[in-house]
């Protein structure tokens, strides 16, 4: 308290003194001691600083001017050099002109390469192709990519235009090889080399073609031999070597060839088509890639734009078409060329989604004037495929926000001329019947011998895929939120078939498929699998088919239809062997009915044996409705009803014993 009072008194005293203070106008300004010695030089320091700053600015400005002049000179030099290199008449100026008559000096030589160095290796476990010491093919994966490896090089630049592998140990791969070679333009440099084995199914026609190309060793190529061959198509053999296998259980020795190949003028390799936007696309395509036949013909090139054929009525004009693609450009080319020529196809509604940043599939897409979108891959193997589907479907509904549906097609499918007409007639069913899951253009059981009626539709509990119509509402509300994540190695279509996702809903399918699976290479595909399960599938080749009983595909109406068919069917003789040729009569109009043993809905023992003897899809069980199958056998419509699993068991006469075929005993 005392200290506080003393502070207040002192403050009051000071305050009174300040009130009486009068400033001295003659007093000198206060200068701290540390600055008293420097004030004298202040004005001269400011002058010196200004001079230094001015000199610095001038110097910086000079440097900028020098840099700008240098850049301009370099750009001018580059442009002039490029112009001269593209003008054969002025190449001597770039080369220095030292050999000219007038001797224009010794400028630095900047010519394009005039030759190509190629090295090729063939062996049991690996193949290698090098161009100018750059490796363009190197395959050393264990027990993978067996067969003939091919690289096609541009004869003017040496650039790689195509790479391919044909497993000619397997059936029909020699046919694919032959087709590919015939589509390569004359003049191209083609490099062949074998990994492991390539002779077993390399038949005489393919060997003869290779012989005509210039091979002297191909006729003698035997089991597990090694072989390397370089040729200019339409010209002559450049180099060839062959390693003979000493015995069936061993391989030929590793062989290597090296060759130096003269390059030609690039202008001699280009076609002089009329200058149009379409031909600009064609020229860009043909300069980059190879193996597409008359698309790149200089005289009679195949069309890449097609007149649009009207579809009447067209209920799918605003439905986008999703093309699921990967790195199989020749498959994509075949599919797009086919799709663009069918009634109802609209290029504006087609988008190609490519799984990965592969250039050739994108070039194929651009050739046809279509939109192509490349995705960054997620996951591996089946998970990667699954994520590609999800990304493509999500992007499609974002690109077409007003569309209620999307049609999905894979790159290895041919589409029927009736493909879009089929969807146009059935689309309304998805809107009107909540019991439906999808509409597919594919019948899993529709082989040449097991289907017949192009107007007929079925309902099935499995999701066939292979050309199908998807509802936006189903995808956005159910599928997209639950789609398998990248770490799950699930097949997207098998996931969609699970009842947890399907929820007892069904798909509409045709008796005769409107798509055809032609691809023999893929993650889950090989030539043998294609031969056994897909090659003999039936495929409708005519347009504008009028479907029957479309509205009877709705839930209640379909049950009425099935009951009508069962009641009007002739019951087959169940005492006979169902796998014998005479069990089902030939070419009858009346439906025929058989009852098979099926204790519960997942008891497929008898069905699987029947599928084998009727040469149907037997890897898993597909194409059924309430434990009942419909198909044609010997040209006659047949219904197979599982008893007691199917609700249609109630129509079985008491004296009929269901057919039972046990699984064959496994040999030990």
Walk me through what this model shows:
- An eight-stranded mixed β-sheet has the order 12-11-10-13-17-15-18-16, sandwiched between helices.
- A hairpin with a 2-residue loop joins strand 2 and strand 3.
- The chain is globular and about 110 Å long.
- The chain has helices at residues 2-19, 33-36, 42-85, 91-95, 173-182, 204-213, 277-288, 329-339, 359-367, 381-399, 419-432, 472-482, 492-497, 499-502, 527-533, 555-568, 605-613; strands spanning 115-122, 127-131, 134-139, 147-153, 160-166, 189-195, 226-232, 237-243, 255-262, 321-325, 350-355, 371-375, 405-410, 413-415, 436-440, 457-460, 468-471, 506-510, 515-517, 570-571, 592-598, 628-633, 636-644.
- Helix 7 runs antiparallel to helix 9 (359-367).
- It has 17 helices and 23 strands.
- The chain is an alpha/beta fold.
- The termini are far apart.
- Mean pLDDT is 87; it is low at 1-18, 38-44 and 87-110.
- The longest helix is centred in the first third of the chain and has 44 residues, at 42-85.
The shape is: globular
Per DSSP, what share of the residues sits in E-state strands of 2 or more residues?
15-25%
Q: How many E-type strands?
A: 23
What integer value in Å does the Rg equal?
39 Å
Overall average residue pLDDT: 87
Please estimate the helix content. 25-40%
Largest sheet, order of strands side by side?
A: 12-11-10-13-17-15-18-16
Low-confidence stretches: 1-18, 38-44, 87-110
Number of helices: 17
Structural class: alpha/beta
Beginning-to-end CA distance, first to last residue: 112 Å
The biggest beta sheet reads:
8 strands, mixed
